[in-house]
Amino acid sequence: MSKTVYGQTTGLSPSQLRALERLYRRRVPPDYLVTHELCRELAHLSKELNRQIGLLLNRRGEVEYVILGDYHRIVIPELERPRKAPGRLLGLRCLHTHLSHPGLDQDDLLDLAFLRLDTMTALEVQPEGLPGRLYTAYLLPRKEGNGYYGFLEPLFPWELRGDFRDLVESLEEELERQRPLKEVSDREDRALLVGVYEGPRFLAEDRLAELRELARTAGVAVVGEVLQRRSSPDPRYVVGKGKLSEIIIQAMQTSANLLIFDRELSPSQVRALTEITDLRVIDRTQLILDIFAQRARSREGKIQVEMAQLRYMLPRLRAKDDAFSRLTGGIGGRGPGETKLEVDRRRIRERMARLERELKAISSQRALRRKRRRRQGLPVVALIGYTNAGKTTLLNTLSREEFLAEDKLFATLDPATRRVRLPDGQVVLFTDTVGFIRDLPADLKRAFRATLEELYEADLLLHLVDASHPSYEEHLEAVESLLEEMDLLRTPRLLVFNKIDRLSPEEVLALRNRFRAEAISAINPETLPPLLSRIASFLDSQRPA
């Protein structure tokens, strides 16, 4: 076993250093938190050095780490042993002295959470160098009230009972019983959703509800949610350290193996969060990309998704080990080749260039098809709207076909065009497009330009809005904002509220009057004639005299 004393040991006499190293020889019976003799030795040494001393002990009672701090705190070094699986404690307990104050402080509780220690104990050192009371905290298997921590009654070392092993075993048994929903397989992702907001809480809760739907669409089981209000996100961890400790504890309590943040994370933030939580960390952008990758069916859709993923991945590549180091030598330090990181980046750029060429070819084919349609003189109506507004369901009802339509976000990615006969007899092409979403990742907007080229050729944009959604106004504004960004506001638009079967007649009437819009239920063909008549009237008015 290593005899290293961790911390700042410069300035110690050889005898003081040997006294610290001798702590590695101490043994504590497995049933006891600590012994009276070890507490006396720690208190005496700590008083002599006027610095905090910490020990990390395993469950056999052996000392694995001896740490020397300053007067106010100790810094636990990076632990060499691998972390336990989610939902398990680390198997180490920390005992350290306090010279300036009794009890546990915030740093102690953060270390307890971040490292998933069995217990954290602070030993009060009295002015004469004798041990005072022991203050011990542990992680609760489930949240009780507003707390994530349990505390043992403060005791003098000679008052301790031999029940430490029973405490740890009962904690782990309870954690095992608290494993998430039985219907969630161990092979499935179990995610905690994390949101940081500045404005009203109800808007943040709405965004988190949308993130929950995105996770459900991606096939992820959501086992918990965390919201924090901050004036600005923490540059390293996004959330504050206190909230981060709650996330770690909640992840342990629910056996979560994934954190999903409702904002785009920088590569450095992903690395920092992954290292401190020992969990996989993704952001909203990556979640949307994963959904698109799962649902793309056509060659075009797959190319667009892959391009978006490569654009997202490129700035997030980083060197991880010595294999990535540059092979330098010779005059001017010119080495024999590229680093592995540079090779990876070059390959990604080459792949993106090939995909770009393929996408241009597909765009050309689409342009030819559009040209043929224009020669036939068929007007085009493009269905647009927020994701899950019911565009594909409406196309199915109008064309009497069965395109995939689900109550999920982004159920449809690949565009589909079908002929529909209006009440006045004229034939119109209805085109379904990918759904919009607020804060749509820029990579996806660029990648899907070939699909959205259909919108520039449309004679009319049919903007569908889910009238039953509590945030329908935010959805409407998000789509309008994206249309403005795409320079599509000059194209005529007709606003249509869908899913009116979920509203009262008074609510439907109020929406129609307020927005001067049509109101339909896409699953009920009887509600469609007024909309089709209005489309026919508009197209007639656009015909040249």
TrEMBL record:
Keyword Metal-binding: yes
Family: Belongs to the TRAFAC class OBG-HflX-like GTPase superfamily. HflX GTPase family.
InterPro entries for this protein: G_HFLX_dom, GTP-bd, GTP-bd_M, GTPase_HflX, GTPase_HflX_N, GTPase_HflX_N_sf, P-loop_NTPase
SUPFAM superfamilies attached to this UniProt entry: P-loop containing nucleoside triphosphate hydrolases
Function: GTPase that associates with the 50S ribosomal subunit and may have a role during protein synthesis or ribosome biogenesis.
One MF annotation (Gene Ontology) recorded for this entry: metal ion binding
CDD domains: HflX
Name used for this protein in its record: GTPase HflX
Gene name tied to this protein: hflX
Organism: Thermosulfurimonas marina
Cellular component, GO, one term: cytoplasm
Coiled-coil residue windows: 338-365
